[in-house]
Amino acid sequence: MKLHDLQPAPGSKKRSKRIGRGHGSGKGKTGGKGMMGQKARSGPGPYRTFEGGQNRLVKRMPFKRGFTNIWRVEYQVVNLEQLLDWPAEVEIGPETLLEARLIRNKRLPLKVLGQGEVHRAMVVRAHKFSASARQKIEAAGGTVVELPWVVERHSRSRGPNPSVRRST
Questions:
Q1: Would you say the pTM of this structure is higher than 0.85?
Q2: Which of 49, 46, 48, 69 is nearest to 58 (CA)?
């Protein structure tokens, strides 16, 4: 291979559009910019949220900015220091914590966090454990039972979704 044999890879070099070079080119007169208007002028166009001068949506509804994950799972949190007063023979789980009013809702999953020290063995049942909570419970001779948590996915509309076409 010699220097005069070198050429770019096929498809890597694209010819630029020659805008405003007569009717025959297909990009003559207005140069693909349509007729007049703010977007046909030179320079940058209007800002992203521009709505033709009317008060724009992001100004009208500032509280709607950002992202909200509609599938987020919210956990009820209990720290190890809250479980220290529990009797040793009682198995600690969502039902017993609900009776003791340490958690408020039986439908939400339970997570145990590791704040506090554990000095005795205990059996703790929850949907999730932090790494430090798991380590402290097992170091004290206790057992950790992780409960399954099935997320119920509901229809995103309100109520059932009847067919648009009626079969008669």
A1: no
A2: 49
